Amino acid sequence: MPQNSLAIFDPLTADWFRRTLGKPTAIQDAAWPAIFSGGHTLVSAPTGTGKTLSAFLVFIDRFLAEARSGTLKEQLKLIYISPLKSLAGDIRENLRRPLDGILEEERKQNPSAESTFSKLTIAIRTGDTPQKERRNMIKHPPHILITTPESLFLMLTSQSGKKILCTAQTVIIDELHALIDSKRGAHLMLSLARLDELCAKPLQRIGLSATMKPLHLAAEYLSSDPVTVIAPAMQKKMQLEVTSPWSDAHLLQKDSI
Fold this sequence. Notes:
The chain is α/β, with parallel strands linked by helices. The protein has a single domain (5-251), classed as P-loop containing nucleotide triphosphate hydrolases (Rossmann fold), CATH 3.40.50. The chain contains 9 helices and 7 strands. The chain has helices at residues 11-21, 26-36, 51-69, 88-109, 131-139, 149-156, 159-165, 183-198, 215-222, and strands at 40-44, 78-81, 122-125, 144-147, 170-173, 204-209, 227-230. A 7-stranded parallel β-sheet has the order 3-4-2-5-6-1-7, with helices on both faces. Helix 1 packs across helix 4 (88-109) and helix 2 packs across helix 3. The radius of gyration is 21 Å and the shape is globular.
């Protein structure tokens, strides 16, 4: 585990993280360098251990650097696949928090500077997305697209969808454990293979999963190429408290309740 995994980030990003969240979790410490290197990565950990930010923060930081240098083009870079379209809004909100937080950090350090995140766009594409928003994506592709396996498939069947998708560099698959050994999961892998053929080079694949075994099978499902598996041993902390509805409950006879 790196001694200071935040060192790979821009100072703005690192400062925001320290002020807001403190120290990285074990998952984040291990995942960030692996994802930063560009390799396929499987992150397996319980809920509440920082999985989502372990996947996203590297790319948020990268977009920040491109925006500052003026090289952030209006094109899709990152695809986030969620099995449930009902979670798309929550995922977008989880993305906006660090973006807004880093923006605020930027304003504190340089109030007169133009926001480097002012043009960073996030869009949702599911069966519920209005036609107006779909047409706008064609004219102005988002940098980050949140979608479902089914909507990704449909985009790959249309010329307008392919035009949006062809510049993607990374795909993050959430709830990977819910897709393995299912027809839906097999169909998604077919879509990802088509996406690799469409884009300039095969996409970096990042899988997020709850704890599951055996992990090597999940890694093989994610990609036939080598996959770095991040699954640090974690001990759950539990706080147990016994309370009584009556102050004199101790006076009751044994086995009377």
